């Protein structure tokens, strides 16, 4: 039996860090002390029931609203307002000014922020419009496009700015099921090619599993962290598989039905009490995450299997090789 000592350098610093973020609208408490870290290249999903504060968290990350408590930082700088480093795609189709053509819509932030001159902006817009599959529609106005096409324009407009992080708030929720699936696939393809960092909000468990590599589960109003999961093993190709169904039921149980493990797997074997173990940290340490749940805020889930890797800032582990 051979042993291999795997020791990693300290994990990379997160790109976006939310620390104990409490968001309030007057007397309404939208979230309570929510913390999470998004690393470069993550497809990080905020998942939870309606009203748990997902959109509010995204808006706070975008700099549209200020936390009543805690802070959000990007690359170590506190977010104090909107910036071109964080582009947002919303659910609403009317996020595109209707009087502008597709090309003008994509060019608009590039020109507004004076990043590029008109000629450069036109070139950049042409490139991104083609990337999202809309070549030939440059001169079309939004009202002549389908919902899916409008969302493609919004994605092209956001990615053309080459933001540090793309923020998406239920971008496909208003689309029919088939188009939604196509858009999820398209987003996956874009990510495979570009490896941008994504913070994605949804209340669909299936969509969270398909889109995300990490999922933060939020409890109902006010939103609090319930658990954090690794979901990199799932995608559209695995949707419908036994594992996918089990993960879906499991998340449903965590969100709505206490802590029963619908997959039938013993809880103690899958729960880890470490603060956060991200795929990135594990990958950094040369460890493949076998266990989907990396953090649980539910005291009933705080059992330690003793086998999972620790994200203690200096991950080290002896991996046993057969
Ligand atoms: N502008 C606002 N003024 C007052 N209360 C608000 C405002 N925006 C959101 N809220 C409240 O904050 C809480 C969280 O809302 P938020 O829109 O962030 O939830 P959500 O998780 O995105 O829900 P959904 O899935 O329905 O979009 C809710 O109770 C909501 O009523
Ligand atoms: Mg919302």
TrEMBL record:
Chain spans, region Disordered: 298-322
GO MF annotations, alphabetized: ATP binding
Biased composition regions of type Basic and acidic residues, renumbered to the chain: 298-307
Entry-linked SUPFAM superfamilies: P-loop containing nucleoside triphosphate hydrolases
Protein's UniProt keywords contain Transport: yes
Domain ABC transporter positions: 16-245
Domain of life: Bacteria
Keyword ATP-binding among UniProt keywords: yes
InterPro entries reported in the protein's UniProt record: AAA+_ATPase, ABC_transporter-like_ATP-bd, ABC_transporter-like_CS, ABC_transporter_ATP-bind, P-loop_NTPase
UniProt keywords, alphabetically: ATP-binding, Cell membrane, Membrane, Nucleotide-binding, Transport
CDD domains: ABC_NrtD_SsuB_transporters
Family: Belongs to the ABC transporter superfamily.
Protein's recorded name: ABC transporter ATP-binding protein
Taxonomic source organism: Duganella zoogloeoides
């Amino acid at each position: 039996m051979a042993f291999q000592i795997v020791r990693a350098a300290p994990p990379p610093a997160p790109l976006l860090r939310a620390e104990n973020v409490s968001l309030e609208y007057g007397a309404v408490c939208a979230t309570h002390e929510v913390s999470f870290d998004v690393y470069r290249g993550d497809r990080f999903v905020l998942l939870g029931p309606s009203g748990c504060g997902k959109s509010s968290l995204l808006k706070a990350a975008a700099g549209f609203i200020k936390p009543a408590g805690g802070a959000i930082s990007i690359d170590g700088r506190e977010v104090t307002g909107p910036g071109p480093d964080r582009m947002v795609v919303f659910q609403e189709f009317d996020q595109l000014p209707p009087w502008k053509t597709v090309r003008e819509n994509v060019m608009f932030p590039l020109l507004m922020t004076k990043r590029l001159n008109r000629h450069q902006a036109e070139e950049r817009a042409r490139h991104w419009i083609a990337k999202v599959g809309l070549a030939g529609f440059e001169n079309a106005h939004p009202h002549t496009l389908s919902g899916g096409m409008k969302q493609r324009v919004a994605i092209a407009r956001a990615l053309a700015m080459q933001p540090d992080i793309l923020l998406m708030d239920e971008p496909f929720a208003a689309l029919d099921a088939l188009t939604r699936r196509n858009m999820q696939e398209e987003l996956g393809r874009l990510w495979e090619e570009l490896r941008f960092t994504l913070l994605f909000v949804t209340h669909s468990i299936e969509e969270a599993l398909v889109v995300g590599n990490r999922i933060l589960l939020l409890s109902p109003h006010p939103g609090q962290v319930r658990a954090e999961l690794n979901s990199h093993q799932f995608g559209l190709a695995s949707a419908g598989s036994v594992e996918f169904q089990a993960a879906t039921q499991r998340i449903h149980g965590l969100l709505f039905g206490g802590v029963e493990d619908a997959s039938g797997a013993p809880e103690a074997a899958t729960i880890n009490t470490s603060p956060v173990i991200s795929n990135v940290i594990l990958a950094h340490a040369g460890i493949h995450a076998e266990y989907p749940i990396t953090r649980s805020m539910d005291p009933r889930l705080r059992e330690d299997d003793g086998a999972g890797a620790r994200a203690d800032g200096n991950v080290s582990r002896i991996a046993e090789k057969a």
